[in-house]
Amino acid sequence: MNSSATVLSPRLRDPAWLKRVFWTCVALVLIAPALVVTEFKPWTLFEPESLKITTRFLGDFFPPNIEGEFLLMVAREAWRTVAIATAGMALALLIAIPLTLMSTSALSISALPGRMHAMPFVIRQAIRWLLIVLRSVPELVWALVFVRVVGLGPSAGVLAIALTYGGMLGKVYGEILESDESHATNSLLRNGSGRLQAFLYGLLPQSSAELTSYTVYRWECAIRSSAVLGFVGAGGLGQQMDNSMKMFRGDEVATMLIVFMLLVGLADYVSERLRRVLA
Questions:
Q1: Which tens digit of pLDDT belongs to each residue from 59-90?
Q2: Is 203 inside a domain boundary?
Q3: Is the distance from CB of 99 to CB of 170 less than 8 angstroms?
Q4: Pairwise CA distance, residues 89 & 93, whole Å
Q5: How far is Cα 10 from Cα 2, in angstroms, rounded to an integer?
Q6: Could you tell me if 261 and 207 are in contact, meaning their C-beta atoms sit under 8 angstroms apart?
Q7: What is the domain extent for residue 233?
Q8: How many domains does the chain have?
Q9: What crossing angle do the helices spanning 250-278 and 237-246 adopt, rounded to 10°?
């Protein structure tokens, strides 16, 4: 009999097929109730009335507004959006870096004998809970708070991004540092080096590429967030987009969306270039 014609059982073709089928069924069982609770009905998008509304809505976006005065305003607000994201990230780094150094167990001098002392452990856990609080509150909520405190404008967006992203950066920075090889760091600490020196000469050289890549990615996310924050009065492209949507000016919204895509593309390009430099 020709071996090519032999029908192999699923177990021989793929020894892990039974496990794959099992976990696929488990995933479907878990996802199905979520789809029911969220009333997920994608077929309604293709109903005649829905298609009519969608076509009319999208039709208002074309052609985009390219008037000179309007483009100048968009360029100015795009720069303000980038400035909000950059200033917010700078403040977030000022929050995240010290908290990361204090909460990372790989930099704990008291843990060198084998078990961390009680007081450093309590302080480290308190800092980690602070990071949880900072990142658990969405930047939109922080923006609403700061709009009440400092008034409408970019300052509220900068502060909102700083607090939320400070918590995010501190959390991920700590995970990156603790997942790397710590032999050099431990050697430095055992020979009398301080925490900062151990970080600069032990952990940072082997983690710099990953830390930089994640930081630039968060800067890209901050650009997107700054646009969303504009809808609650935090300035930038988002605030202008909100005004145009309220006036049913789809052509203006289309222009600002194109500019916003270009900004995200620029951030992605910067991230790629930095990764190549640090590779």
A1: 878 888 888 888 898 888 888 888 998 999 99
A2: yes
A3: yes
A4: 6
A5: 19
A6: no
A7: 68-278
A8: 1
A9: 160
